[in-house]
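Dear all,

This email documents one entry for the complex benchmark we are building for the journal club exercise. For each entry we list the sequence lines for every component of the assembly. Then comes the predicted three-dimensional structure of the complex as a token string, followed by one or two observations. Please use this as the template for your own entries, and keep the labels exactly as they appear.
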Amino acid sequence: MSGERETVLELRDLEVSFKVKGGGVFKAVRGVSFSIYKGETFGLVGESGSGKTSIGRAIVRINGASSGSILYKGREISGRISKELDREVVRKIQMIFQDPMASLNERAKVDYIVSEGLYNIGVKRTEEERRAMVAKALLEVGLLPEFASRFPHEFSGGQRQRIGIARALIMEPELVVADEPISALDVSIRAQVLNLLSAIQKAKGLTYLFIAHDLSVVRFITDRIAVINKGEIVELAETEELFRNPLHPYTRALISAIPQPDPLVERKKVVTVYDPKCHDYSTDKPQWTDVGGGHFVLANAKEADAYRERIASGR
Amino acid sequence: MIRDSISAGPMSPEAILAAADGLDPALFEPAAFDASAGERGGYSNYSYWRSTARGFLKNKVALFFLVLLVALLAFTFVQPLLPGQKSPTKIHIDPATGMQYRNVEPCAEFWFGTNTIGQDLWARIWSGTRTSLMIGLIVGAVEMIVGIGFGAIWGYVRRLDGVITEIYNVLNNIPTTIVLMLLSYILRPSFKTMVIAMCATGWLGLARFVRNQIVIIRDREYNLASRCLGTPTRRIILKNLLPYLVSVIMLQTALSIPGTIGWEVFLTYIGLGLPVSIPSLGNLVNEGRQIMMSPELRYQLLFPTVVLSMITISFYVLGNAFSDASDPRNHV
Amino acid sequence: MANGEAILEARGLVIKFNLRGRALTAIRGASLDLYEGETLAIVGESGSGKSVLTKSLVGMLDRNGWVDSGSAMFEGRDLAKIKDERDWLGVRGKKISMVFQDPMTALNPLLTIGAQIREVFELHHGLSGKKADYAVIEMLERVGIDNPEERRRQYPHEFSGGMRQRVVIAIAVACKPRILICDEPTTALDVTIQAQILGLIKALQRDLSFTTVYITHDLGVVANVADRVAVMYAGRIVETGLAEEVFYDSRHPYTWALLSSLPQLGVKGKPLYSISGTPPNLFNEIRGDAFAPRNPKALKVDFVAEPPEFAVSPTHRASTWLLDPRAPRIEPPPAILAMRAKLGGSSSGAAGGRL
């Protein structure tokens, strides 16, 4: 399945650190590597503080990477890059933000918000053309073109999030980093936005990096999932494979905690708690191990054997 | 009202229900669905500027001072055009005695009286107010432009933050009084000198203020989004950051105008203000102060002080009222 | 579980707000019963009014809001008629306590957590000195904070999110209230911590015998904790019933839409069932069923008249014209049919129901 596919994005040992008050450094991302293929939806799942947002922001160059590299179609885009490469990154990689209440400029009209990126690309465009592009972008996300003359506060959370999506899509990107795009939305609106993202992906052949903390959402929309805990990726597999055979104890804990909208199931549910002390890494250090079928786990040799056993006996 | 939904029986409860609530049975058919009608649901009628205006207009005290200030300002500039006004520098001589009209108390001829050398106080006060206000407004405008520009760059461009903060600390520790006195002394007292001196010292406070506000909002998601879209720093400052600072900037500017006038009064008091030939509130207060111990001459101190107070209080009240009204957290 | 006695009866509450000179009706006639010892979950999204409803029961409506009509009888008093802040002091925090979503803003950053819990004991139980200290330590133990002796001298910022929420819960139950209202207590927490907090509240409810009301939009939480569920939309309660009834045999189109749009129930590759549009503007007078403009299965009468409550069973009620005998049979979405199948086919003939 992964053989001939074009790699759109590759992360190699990416590290992102932040300065902490009083000296010292906090490593939010500690040596993360994975690749994203063209046309797929890659899910990155973790809890708060796991570093997933930092990865997303490093990819769109809002944060800097402290070491390691990010390659877009084979070209290094982390660190200092040329102006034209920077402009290309702005065009080709875009981001959808989490909080619709905070991610739009309250004092600007929707018209400006959606076409803001167009002003930056520098292509000569008449006012007419620009307005037409804005109208088209709004229609594509299911909003009415007349909304362009209004301000963000006149819209609901779901509509605002769609404005944010229109703003990213008007740039005609190839890779979209969606940073928890539905976490801040009402339950019934989430389905709207998820459907929208799926439809747009099919229509335009986009590639998504979908960052989330909710495994049930991720299961529905992604092709492959990477689970991240405290800055390290602990498991990576195709979506169904991950749910069928979760190997790393952290993944298992996350899956057991997924809320089910079913009283009978919920009441019988037992949540396993992840205790990092369950690993003994004193002598046998963990490696990024391939356990077959595109399924990778962070495990030392002993654990890897146990996992392979489990998969074999499970099938 | 709870109703039990009972299955259709020989008694035809539908008929009973229909009679009871008068609803046409034909209504119980599926309706056509218009997806965009749901979209127009519409959410909020909030408008930032309308809420600001409402908040401001509700404040009766602020309205009073607004009217007062506007009247004052208007009159200040209209006064010379009125008929029968005297020149502020002319020394008036009593044709009968050939003596100067010194220290005449307010009367029909001289509405505010005259000063120690026979000049008409009414004309002097309005001319002085004009001068002081001009200084205040020009300095306020320059402070605003330089202060905001500098503060915005200081706050937004992380790399410059450290360096500029050190420069600020040095500059801030130089007492304003000393700078003003030095500049006035070196450049010789004049209108231009005053303006230059005040501009040189005044912008720093606003810059610091703007910088602090920008540090607070620069990492909000909508600014990150703009960076992600490739928006240059200049436009982020102009369209994303400054519109949020309107409230605080207007307050600072409104307060700086009476502040500037205050400094002008002080400099005049220590002899480094405007020359005596140019009347200003500072001059007038100073002259009045010198003779305030004689009760019958106190009017010469009273009038300029009252005008100065009215201006100061008005600006303070209006500045605060506008700042409160334009603060979105106060918008209900 | 409930023992049959209603400790709080709210009838026809109408709550309005004065917003920028216009009146907004946030609650348009809500009636609710709360039974001793049960766990009730109020489910709704933004604009449904779920927080406003419970805030009115503890006198914490914003200053520009008021109870226009209706009643809320609790211990012989009508909470809807209380105007004086002093009268609320005997109720709020003492008989009815609230836990909010964000523990960081609920706690005073300048006081130690021990001091904040102690306040409750001093105020409501008249304890002081050593007795109050012991009470604080015992409370911290109860909510699962280790080393209570030491930790009570720490400040809120020294605790993690889940720990802070435990402290907030400790403060809320310290006075042994009769009703504990939890407004989205786990939304800001990670999924693994969420389970712990819900478990904690359940255990406390057992030990201290109070009634819990959850306000949430998370149906997973509801499925976990609730005995009874009330679904709110645009300021009205549109469906109430036992948890099993509302999940497996829901009758209101909004509840259908809510349940079917969950990703857990989605099939990959096919679009999720979703509700188009946005909730209505509550400044305007709403004619008919508020959900009608977004309901593809609406009847014409939904745009004309507000549906009354229909009983599906003695414990299950829904306000929808679909339950009227004159209404045609409408098929709920496939996800709902699948839920019904889980109950083993007994649903469509539920006592009194027609669909």
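Observations: Chain A has eleven helices and twelve strands. The first strand of chain A starts at residue 7 and ends at 19.
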